[in-house]
Design goal:
Length: about 60
Amino acid sequence: MTSGRRTTRRTAKPKPCPDCQTGQVSEAFKVGTRSKRESTDRQEALCLTCFGTGQAPE
C-alpha cells in the first residue's frame, strides 16, 4: 500500500491598501460657525477603500 502525498495550500499574504497602508487616514476639518475656515490640525478617520483593515480590497 502506498501512502498518498499530502500537500498543503499556502494562503497568500494580504496586500496593503494602496491608499492608507494602516487602515487610517488623516483629514482636515473645518471650524467656525459662519466662515468655516479649515483648521491646521488633522484628525484620524477610517480609510473608505479598505474600511479600516489596512488590506487591499479584492
